Hints:
mainly alpha
Amino acid sequence: MVKYFVVSAVVAALCGPAMAASKKETDCGHQAAVVAAVQKARIDRVGERKVPAHVAANATWPDRYNTAITLVTPWVYEMKMREVKAKDLSAAWKEMCLAQ
Length: 100
């Protein structure tokens, strides 16, 4: 019984950071998906004011990430179109998110 408890404690201690990293990776992935959707809306020439409704209508992430749409939209729309088309903004966002 004690042996089982010790093994369980060790497994829990070792898995804790891995589970936290996995959760952060998932969270950053959803945020990156939002950025990609806003980038696509910009390329498709959706008006900046219509982006939240347009992107939320086709969301593939949990609803709680929809608040990020209004935060990311000005960042994407202030860039020149050639930058938006040429760069992978979602990869940059995910890298930045995981670094925090």
